[in-house]
Design goal:
With 185 residues, this protein is α+β, with helices and mostly antiparallel strands. It has five helices and eight strands; from the N terminus they run ααααβββαβββββ. The model has no long low-confidence stretch (mean pLDDT 81).
């Protein structure tokens, strides 16, 4: 039931006519002055006046009535096309899961196809695979593998370990222990 039907006025009624209809309907349905009055009917009348008595709210209400019409035998329509109104509790779970899977796939594909454009510069921490030169005092110093180097670190020694037969022990230039170096001759 529309607010116009509640107040029993025509949609083209002026504000003064709507006010007069509101007052008459309140007198008819007020529980203190009428035996047939009920609080629910009075609330509907007051809500109709609140909307139709305010020019801005009435304009918006009239627009909503003209764009959406209800047919007793059919669905809501917008103009002439049926409009499906989703339930208030629907949430686009499938869409979000699909987006998450696509995002994960893009990240994995990026990791698998991206090459490190250039090797890391030496950080002066000797570890297996570090390219080294031997300084005048016999210490091993890390250098870039693209530059001239004498050998490659095979492993770092613990206190009581010995190097394999094809490697030589050299002290780390930073003083962090001893490493086994295989020479590229």
């Amino acid at each position: 039931m529309t607010h116009y039907e509640v107040l029993r006025v025509d949609p083209s009624a002026s504000t003064a006519q709507v006010r007069a209809a509101f007052r008459q309907r309140v007198r008819e349905h007020h529980p203190d002055t009428s035996a047939s009055g009920s609080a629910d009917e009075l609330l509907a009348i007051k809500e109709a006046w609140r909307v139709l008595g305010d020019p801005h709210l009435r304009r918006d209400y009239d627009r909503s009535l003209s764009s959406v019409s209800r047919h007793p035998s059919g669905p809501e329509t917008l103009g002439s096309a049926p409009v499906e109104i989703p339930p208030a509790s629907s949430f686009p779970w499938r869409f979000l899961i699909g987006m998450a899977v696509a995002g994960i796939a893009i990240v994995i594909l990026g990791v698998l196809t991206t090459n490190d454009p250039k090797p890391r510069p030496p950080d002066n921490v000797l570890e297996a695979g570090s390219c080294v030169v031997i300084t005048d005092n016999g210490d091993a110093a890390e250098v870039d593998c693209a530059d001239d180097h004498m050998g490659v670190v095979v492993n770092r020694l613990a206190d009581d370990e010995l190097c394999a037969t094809d490697t030589e022990p050299h002290r780390d230039q930073q003083g962090l222990g001893t490493v086994c170096v295989r020479f590229d001759f």
